[in-house]
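Before the break, one more example. Copy the sequence into your notebook; we will annotate it together after we see the structure.
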Amino acid sequence: MLFLARCLATVVGVRLALTLSSYNRVRGLVTRLDARNDASIADLRRVAWGVAAAARYVPGASCLTQALAGQYLLACQGSTSKISIGIERGTGTELKAHA
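Here is what the structure looks like once it is written out:
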C-alpha cells in the first residue's frame, strides 16, 4: 500500500512539474539521482504496474508523465533506466508520439 501511495505522489509530482516547467528540466532533475545498477525484471514490472495504476487517478498523466515517474522511482532504488520517445506519422500532417 505504501508503494502505491509513493507511485501516486510521484506521478502527481511529475505531472505538475511538466505542467509548470519543461521536459528537459524535469528530466534533468530525475537523471541527477545517482543510479548505477541495472534493475531486475521484477523491479521493472512492479514499478510499471504501480505507475500505471496511479496514473489512472491523475488527470493528464500521459505516457511521458508515466515514463518519467517510473524512471524517478527506479533511480531512487539505484537502478538506471532510459526513456525512448517514438514518433509515428499519422494520417495527414498529424504526428503521434509515445514514450
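The chain has one domain: 2-98. The mean pLDDT is 91. Try to locate both features in your own notes.
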